[in-house]
UniProtKB/TrEMBL annotation:
A Pfam family it matches: Methyltransf_19
Name listed for the protein in its UniProt record: Methyltransferase
Region (Disordered), start-end ranges: 1-23
Species for this entry: Streptomyces flaveus
Gene3D superfamilies reported for this sequence: Vaccinia Virus protein VP39
InterPro entries, per database record: SAM-dependent_MTases_sf (IPR029063), SAM_dep_MeTrfase_SAV2177_type (IPR006764)
Length: 242
């Protein structure tokens, strides 16, 4: 694994313990903040193609609004398997005249289908930013999320990026065991993962400084400041394909 200043080798600051319900609600907002920060940073670095899987119900600003404000010609492809998101997908398609946006109704467990459809909008000979916000902690080990991420990254050009957050039970395992059980009883295969398990997603990639961190501590200067959000047990990382 590549390094981003070596910060990923040291344990992060300990997260305070939020209640399960509040943590889940806040985590959705923190995930979105991280997506905004990484997208803004990458657009400023010249990345003008984005593949956002696990889009969720559109909430402004959407990813294409963030990056097209910097690069009007940016192209963005969204993908989600939720039929509710499909009903709201029109809001994701209001691109600038210079750029393009598209929406794919597909499950992350079908990486081949997503990639084939994305090629209609994105140029796979050029770098692409792959965003998987608020998603992989909803993919069970039986579905092999490491394989899924590997298959999504494989056809991307060198210089592409992976932006990834993930819920963890490292700081309050009892609370998150209860949260996971609630999700599973509702039919959602939720899974929190440790720091070492999360790090595996970035094997073979070069982590951007400061490496793997808690979400609120990852380049907070690029987004809004929220005093309570450093309590959210969400690891994040951004890495470049070599």
């Amino acid at each position: 694994m590549g390094g981003g200043g070596g910060a990923q080798e040291h344990p992060p600051r300990r997260s305070k313990k939020p209640s399960g319900r509040r943590a889940v609600e806040e985590m959705a907002r923190v995930n979105r903040d991280f997506m905004h920060r990484t997208s803004r940073l990458l657009a400023e670095r010249g990345i003008n193609q984005f593949l956002d899987i696990g889009t969720g119900i559109p909430t402004e600003p959407n990813l294409h609004q963030v990056v097209q404000a910097i690069t009007p010609s940016a192209r963005v492809v969204y993908a989600d398997n939720d039929p509710i998101v499909l009903r709201h997908a029109e809001a994701l398609l209001h691109s600038t005249p210079e750029g393009r946006t598209a929406y794919i109704q597909a499950d992350v467990r079908e990486p081949g289908r997503i990639l084939a459809a994305a090629k209609e909008t994105l140029d796979f000979e050029q770098p692409i930013a792959l965003s998987l916000a608020a998603l992989l902690h909803l993919v069970a080990d039986d579905d092999d999320p490491y394989r899924i991420v590997g298959e999504l990254l494989k056809p991307l050009a060198a210089g592409s990026y992976l932006a990834l957050p993930h819920a963890t039970g490292d700081f309050d395992p009892e609370t998150w065991e209860r949260v996971v059980e609630v999700y599973r009883k509702g039919g959602t295969p939720a899974t929190v993962r440790s720091r070492s398990e999360f790090s595996r997603f970035f094997e073979g990639l070069e982590l951007v400084d400061p490496g793997i961190e808690l979400a609120a501590l990852w380049h907070p200067e690029l987004g809004e400041q929220h005093s309570q959000r450093e309590q959210i047990p969400l690891y994040v990382g951004l890495a470049r394909k070599l």
